[in-house]
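A note from the maintainers: we've had questions about how concatenated examples are separated. There is no special marker in the raw files; a new sequence line simply starts the next protein. For clarity in this README we add a label.
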Amino acid sequence: MHVHSHRERRWTYHYPLFRAWGVVGVRDAGSHLGSALAARERAVADPLAPHVIWGSPIIDGAPQINSFGLSAEDEQSGRVLVREMQRMGFDFIKVYDRLTPEAYRGIAAEAKTRGMRLEGHVPLSISPDAAVNAGQTLIDHLTLVMEACIPGAIKLVNSEQAAKPETVDSLALIADARMAAALGHYDPAVCDAQFSQFAAKDVWQVPTLIQMKGYFFADQLAVAIDPRSDQVPANVLAEWQSRGREADRAELANGREALAAQMRMFRAMQDRGVKLLTGTDTSNEPWVFAGSSVHDELLLFVESGLAPAEALRAATLNPRLYQGRDTAVPLLAAGERADLVLLDADPLVDISNTRRIAGVFARGSYHDRTSIGQLLAAARQAAAKGQ
């Protein structure tokens, strides 16, 4: 599960929400360096902490999109950062939008030499094909995947990056009117070739569809009454509502078209054997709630054409495969180690039944309905403190 839970003390309400909603493991895809180092120590002792796969701080080009990232301006500085991140004990290198081809090449080569996984966005200066050939093993948010299915779209993105390196970012490009117009030229044959490459080279995809829905349906979500709204700090909720009121309606419409196109790609990806993982981008992303939004993501997977069993695999077995662990189901017996979520109804019949949680076993603790209610109350209390 793709999250950013270790900045601004978000773990104080994220951790109990993860546990309450049956999220027993996460992949932290980038935080402030200092926050991440401190959080790694804290997570070992915190009984509510999920199992965490730790990504490096985001490595971006110059200027960086996010203040909490690191900058690699050329091949050598990229290599140096990879060495530093490995020395600090991070599990993978997280790459981002504004890297130049030269800096990305240095990062990829050094990561390969040192046996570190290379994951994250496909930089806007290259293509998914180039990223895969360089050794990137996971793509977040389907970055540039849809564009790779549209003749000429990657060239457009690359030229935008070259012309406006200080302003361009992947989310803004999705809502660009030119990209919306280009969707009419989507070529399934080109897509099939790209998906076959992903499958052949074991490149994982973490779509985070719920994150895109939060951005591009912001106007509707801002006026809806979501019962989970008390699970985020008041200032965060106010920002989400403001975003929905002030969003450019044309950009929202373009983004919705792009999201629909990405969802239509899903069945073809699954048919070509592309490996999928659930993820939500839980942080302060609009209308993405810690824990519960993974169930929203599963529903979007099914609405995109996956069978419930295929969607569940992306949240259960596939994380084990991604980590290189064996596929054997952990033994449910005294003395054995296993995390388990008990449901009241069959999710193979209706994927929304994943929300009907009767109990959670995690890190040696059991939470029944009463305990789950207490976790939710603790999360609301922490969120109310603005943490």
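[label: protein 2]
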Amino acid sequence: MNNGERRKSFRTNCNINVGVSGDDKEIRAESLDISETGFKLRSYRRFALNSRYELTFTLNPELTNIKCVASVAWINKVDDPDIFLTGFTFSELSQDDLLKIQRFVEEKGDSEGA
């Protein structure tokens, strides 16, 4: 996905705990934003570019967990040498979970704009 494609989806800021599984490990990461096409996550792990991971997260306590597969689209360093920002693109996401994400982004966008 290039920058033009990424910008087609509205992103909203969010702080959600995300479980990232792959390479026989599971780590916790924190989302910084979400769209219907992916996440920006902050973590203490450098993920491999173009690698696929299983993500597990809950948008709000009233909804069931979302489990999906996502690919690493980009990686950025920040001032802290132990923290990485990683862009994940959803690659396997059920229609029901996509609808949950779309509703969440719309509701957050409406409340942020108010």
